[in-house]
């Protein structure tokens, strides 16, 4: 087991920083998350080298917590896009290294890195699979007991603070070229959600992105709900009470029927990367 540690994204005002900058605080929203000053380095720390500590932005911790799979020997969970493995290792911890956690990664090089990370973090319940999640047959008996799926597919990455995209991109500033690119990404993201909904026993699907754009976020969520309705898949969004109710940031107004059912983080406002988290539940 390990602690999740946030190495950046919080202002100096939130800590009593000494010259060594070693002070930390426990996060108020995420269990096992410790918050450190952005300038603290863990590269030479033994706990980091041995996988006992994982460095991750606070917002990136939200998907696993919202998915909330049961800690049971019978648990069957899928992380559809596992690399680099931080969210997968977080899930592994949340279910106490029990059950089976299928971790998909289609890129061979990334898959090799993924395997090393799981070994270092001692994730004994993870089964890494070098395959495209979209190519997996939902009716395969191997996945017949999967009840929870985490989807964090490729996105524009416009919410990542150290890319500084959020300083130059906004919903109003998306030009036609950028909009075409975002629409293509959104089509792929929607395909991932629709595929996840085809798994026979799945009860809960978390879809997240590190994007600030409604095209990839609220619009995709809205389209997934419409697809579910058209296919009689019986999926709806989890109520706000099940999606980090203590977090104030919610979806963009007027972009979906109930923006309070999704969690949104805004860079520069929430001391995190830009992020959106939604949760589909089968009725």
TrEMBL record:
Which residues of this protein are catalytic? 210
- Keyword Transmembrane attributed: no
Q: Which residues form the SAM-dependent MTase RsmB/NOP-type domain?
A: 1-283
Methyltransferase in keyword set: yes
Keywords attached to this Swiss-Prot or TrEMBL record, sorted alphabetically, are: Methyltransferase, RNA-binding, S-adenosyl-L-methionine, Transferase
Q: Which GO terms fall under molecular function for this chain's record? A: RNA binding; RNA methyltransferase activity
Instruction: Tell me the first and last residues of the signal peptide.
Output: none
- Gene Ontology biological process terms in this record: rRNA base methylation
Name its species: Gymnopus androsaceus JB14
Cellular component terms per the entry's GO annotation: nucleolus
Q: Which residues bind S-adenosyl-L-methionine?
A: 105, 132, 152
Q: Which Pfam families match?
A: Methyltr_RsmB-F, NSUN5_fdxn-like
Q: Which family does it belong to?
A: Belongs to the class I-like SAM-binding methyltransferase superfamily. RsmB/NOP family.
- What is this protein identified as? S-adenosyl-L-methionine-dependent methyltransferase
Q: Which InterPro entries match?
A: MeTrfase_RsmB-F_NOP2_cat, MeTrfase_RsmB-F_NOP2_dom, NSUN5_7_fdxn-like, RCMT, SAM-dependent_MTases_sf
């Amino acid at each position: 087991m390990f602690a999740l540690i946030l190495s950046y994204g919080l202002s100096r005002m939130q800590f009593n920083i000494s010259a060594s900058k070693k002070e930390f605080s426990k996060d108020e929203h995420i269990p096992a998350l410790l918050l450190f000053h952005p300038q603290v380095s863990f590269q030479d720390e033994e706990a980091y080298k041995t996988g006992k500590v994982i460095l991750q932005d606070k917002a990136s911790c939200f998907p696993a917590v919202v998915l909330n799979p049961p800690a049971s020997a019978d648990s069957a969970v899928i992380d559809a896009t596992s690399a680099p493995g931080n969210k997968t290792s977080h899930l592994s911890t949340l279910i106490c290294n029990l059950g089976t956690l299928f971790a998909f990664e289609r890129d061979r090089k990334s898959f090799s890195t993924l395997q090393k990370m799981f070994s270092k973090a001692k994730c004994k319940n993870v089964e890494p699979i070098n395959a495209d999640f979209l190519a997996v047959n939902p009716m395969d008996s191997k996945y017949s007991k999967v009840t929870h799926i985490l989807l964090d597919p490729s996105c524009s990455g416009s919410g990542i603070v150290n890319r500084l995209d959020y300083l130059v991109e906004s919903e109003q500033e998306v030009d036609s070229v950028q909009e075409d690119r975002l629409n293509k990404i959104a089509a792929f993201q929607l395909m991932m959600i629709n595929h996840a909904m085809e798994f026979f026993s799945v009860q809960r699907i978390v879809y997240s992105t590190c994007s600030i754009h409604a095209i990839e976020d609220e619009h995709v969520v809205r389209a997934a709900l419409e697809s579910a309705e058209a296919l009689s898949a019986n999926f709806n969004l989890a109520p706000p009470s099940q999606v980090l109710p203590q977090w104030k940031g919610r979806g963009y107004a007027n972009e979906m029927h109930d923006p309070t059912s999704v969690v949104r983080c805004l860079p520069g406002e929430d001391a995190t990367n830009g992020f959106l988290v939604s949760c589909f539940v089968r009725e």
